[in-house]
Specification:
about 90 residues; alpha+beta; 4 helices; flat
Length: about 90
């Protein structure tokens, strides 16, 4: 278990644990990627699409971000490269 990440118990929700993990990664300046998915048939997808303006804009696509299952959270170190100083004016 990572330092600063509490074990799941009656007082801590999974949302709290996810939020703590993301904040922990942010404090360490890690690039953070959260992977999630939602199981649905092609018929369900087509129905959602037709009911939401063909997913024409971001607001229409928000329905796809509901009822997601989190598969993992990754914190990736991305250290500054030696030549970065040359690119900053």
């Amino acid at each position: 278990m990572q330092a600063g990440i509490a074990a799941v118990d009656d007082e801590i929700t999974y949302f709290d644990l996810i939020e703590r993990t993301v904040r922990n990664f942010a404090e360490r300046a890690y690039r953070t990627i959260l992977m999630s998915y939602r199981d649905m048939s092609m018929e369900e997808y087509q129905k959602l699409k037709s009911e939401n303006n063909g997913f024409a804009n971001e607001k229409d696509r928000e329905i796809l971000e509901k009822e997601l299952v989190i598969a993992g959270i990754f914190g990736i170190k991305d250290p500054l490269r030696d030549d970065i100083k040359d690119s900053i004016i």
